[in-house]
Amino acid sequence: MYRIRHYIRPEQIREFSLIFIIMLAVLFFGTQIDGYYSARTFNRIAASVAIITVLAAGQTLVILTRNIDLSIGSIVGFASYFAGQQLSANQDMHPLIAVGIAIGFGALLGSVNGLLVVYGRVPSIIVTLGTLAIYRGVLVDYAQAKTITTDMMPTWLVDLPRVNLFTVGEIEIRVMVGVAVLVVIAFQLCLTYLLLGRRLYAIGSNPDAARVAGLPARRIVLLAYILCGALAGLGGFMFLVRFGTITVSAGVGLELSAVAAAVVGGVNIFGGAGTMFGALFGAVVIGTLEQSLLRMPNVSEFVRDALLGLFILLAVASDAVILQQLRSLWARWAREARETPAAHSEKESGHAS
Amino acid sequence: MKKSFLILIILTVMSLSLVSAQDEAVVATPGETVNMILLPKFLGIAVFDQAHQGAEEAHAELQNAGTLEFLGPTQENSAAGQVEIVTTAASRDDVDAIMISNNAGDQLGPALEAAKAADQTVVTWDSPIPSGDSEDLFVAQVDFDQTGKVMADMALSILGEDGGKFAVLSASPDAANQNAWIASLQETLEDEAYASLELLDIVYGDDVTETSYDQALALVDKYPDMELIMAPTTVGIAAAAKAMQDEGLCETVKVSGLGLPAEMLDFTLNGCAPEFALWSFVDLGYVTYYATYLLATGAIEAEEGVSFEAGRMGVYTIEKDPTREVGLRIVMGPFSVYNIDNVEAAANPGGAEMTPEATEEG
Q1: Per the CB 3.0–4.6 Å rule, which of A139, A175, B212, B303 could disulfide with B236?
Q2: Under 8 Å between Cβ of B138 and B128
Q3: Residue B21: which pLDDT band, with cuts at 50, 70 and 90?
Q4: Which of B76, B225, B250, B272 to mutate to test the interface with A (most CBs of A within 10 A)?
Q5: Are strands B328-331 and B137-140 parallel, antiparallel or unpaired?
Q6: How far is CA A231 from CA A110, A227, A284, in A?
Q7: Residues of B in contact with A245 (CB under 8 A)
Q8: What is the pLDDT of residues B262-320, one digit of tens each?
């Protein structure tokens, strides 16, 4: 039993507890909503969380470094508008080039954020609150009140939300869902195995120590912002694909949804802890609650928002309590192991035999 | 005897027509100087840009030597931004009139009071000041009671004579105009002629694309026998139509409501939203400008029964606003209903602008 602590950290159990919470929620809603246990429910929730998952992944990179990016709602809006405009002007543009434009544009705006945070030495919350308004303001001016509409878009883009990557029975994995999962897996691998990933954690855990240890902290934080902007650009492209009609208010408020998904998913708002899978689960928890409450009979508009807030609080609070308990349990085991090394090893060997 | 009686009648009629001639619509005198501000709910949306176009058209027509400024806040900052703009305008000497599409409820009260104290004319359009205080006149886009009938008629036209079940996808639960339209729809449905229509539910998409899209799909899941989503909001109708298209539901669930031709073009052509309605925001801006110009130059007073001519749009008479306790209004109207036959012309601004001019010349 003691040995568990060598292989699993409490933070990892936290992700399982999120899965447990999702299961509880699904069990509850199943009793309230007719035909809830169906492939359709899965398809709806999966499709609805795809965009926010990509944004939460980007946000996680920044939060890990003990910073925040509040401007991504505006980046999503601007990138989707810009990509839509380029596509409407060049109908034959290759899909990958169109995606590239959105990502590149997002990365550009992200790098502005990063440069201001790193070299301007202004707290990130203030910088990105400022650029949130600036990017949106420039977009309003740039757009000249013209709306991007579906009839301006090439057919492949309008049809893309319907395209399945593959289907299992009636469960459909849409291309957009596939993209989101791919992003999460790719960045999780980066966080776990690449030097960059480890450095993000190091900077967020203790910025001063990281600097003293000789880590190029500025470059890494800048890179985190560029990547976050790039993912917001990708999210913008997905926004264009899903909704088709893009006005200057596209993506308003998405920054808070992304932060919420990351934090519910166990990404520490003070940096240094959290995973991509956590952010994914956070997005799924919120998406499941939102979509299920929409489908629950006799729940009014006002009650629904309150319930959503309550459920999120419950999820995070119970999660925190569980994590606290686990941490102290781990600590106790560690202490016991130190105090009675002989007895401990005997016990363990006893178990083994 | 008979003859003199006839003469008497003729005389009476003539004198009556003389009296009414004195009461005839006031026509604006071009070339006066009125500095005006057109203040939309927020910038960057096609409808408000169209209202601006209409105002510019009237501005040129009336050869106003003054300025027409188009000032507005951003969407996130709409209410606070409107208050700020009106407050600044009230302290400026070079502003004679403010035309505002109110998005700040009664919060604009004090700022507008200051504007009135500075002798500025305040005309609301699209969305009035709920209390009716501190505004001279409200230019209503349509008669709110008519909206319900237009929606019910479109529902019947789409679903056929045997009717069916439908749901409403609105903007936010506290939007005054949305609620008035839905109430008018519910009232209309009580009429025998619409007995075959059943309203299942009213949901709110907050005029946010994502929320409206999700709400539309939730309606489909909640009510398997629903055949129509009625969205009296341009954001909601486009999002709902896209959702039905993405899920391949256009054959079973149709979308209708109030929408912009340019945004709905694809969905009308492919049958997802076969019919929808809207008024012209260009005309709304145009009429608003005329009313404001006349009020600001003192040609008319904001009083019940006063008539004036608003250029190409014809004659309007100021009346008491029945939708508010206090307040005067004129009603522009009418609705344009769009379907596969006319949506393309309306979506292409060049084509749409041509029509009224062509009829005038012909």
Answers
A1: B212
A2: yes
A3: very low
A4: B76
A5: parallel
A6: 9, 6, 18
A7: 209, 238-239, 242, 263
A8: 899 999 999 999 999 999 899 999 999 999 999 999 999 999 999 999 999 999 999 99
pLDDT tens digit sequence for B80-121: 999 999 999 999 989 999 999 988 888 888 999 999 999 999
A55-B248-B163 Cα angle (round to 5): 125
Task: Tell the CATH superfamily of the B144-271 domain.
Answer: Response regulator (3.40.50.2300)
Domains belonging to chain A, first-starting first, are 4-338 (1.10.3470)
Single out the residue of B163, B154, B270 nearest to residue B227, CA to CA. B163
Q: What are the tokens at A134?
A: 């600036």
Nearest to B308 by CA among B321, B281, B289: B289
Give the residue among B123, B233, B217 at the shortest CA–CA distance from B173: B233
CA distance B190 to B185: 9
Tens of pLDDT, residue by residue over A36-88, are: 999 999 999 999 999 999 999 999 999 999 999 999 999 999 999 999 999 99
* Pairing between β-strand B226-231 and β-strand B164-170 as defined by DSSP bridges: parallel
pLDDT tens-digit readout, B191-209: 999 999 999 999 999 888 9
- Residue ranges of E strands in A20-112: none
B38 - beta bridge partners?
B70, B99
DSSP type of residue B27: -
ipTM: 0.86
Cross-strand bridge partners of residue A189: none
- B-chain residues near A136 (CB < 8 A): 74, 76
Identify all chain B residues contacting A139, using CB atoms and an 8 Å cutoff: 44
Q: What is residue B11's predicted lDDT score, i.e. its pLDDT?
A: 56
Nearest to B275 by CA among B214, B243, B242, B230: B230
- Which residues, given as ranges, of chain A have pLDDT below 70? 1-5, 11-12, 341-353
Indicate the CATH number for domain B36-142+281-331. Answer: 3.40.50.2300
Question: Helix, strand or coil for residue B91?
Answer: coil
- Asked if B11 and B4 count as a contact pair (C-beta separation under 8 A), the reply is no
Contact B346/B336 with Cβ under 8 angstroms?
Answer: yes
What count of CB pairs under 8 Å joins A to B?
93
pLDDT at B342 over 80: yes
Q: Are B282 and A168 in contact (CB under 8 A)?
A: no
Q: Give the Å distances, CA to CA, from B177 to B26, B68, B126.
A: 30, 27, 9
Residue boundaries of the structural domains of chain B = 36-142+281-331, 144-271
Cβ of A243 and B204 within 8 Å? no
Read off the pLDDT band of B355 (50, 70, 90).
very low
Confidence grade of residue B150 (pLDDT, cut at 50, 70, 90): very high
Q: What's at A331, amino acid-wise?
A: A
What is the predicted pLDDT for the residue at B167?
97
Of A19, A56, A10, A22, the residue nearest A184 (C-alpha): A56
All residues of chain B having their beta carbon less than 8 Å from the beta carbon of residue A247 are 44-46, 235
Of A145, A242, A301, the CB nearest to B49: A145
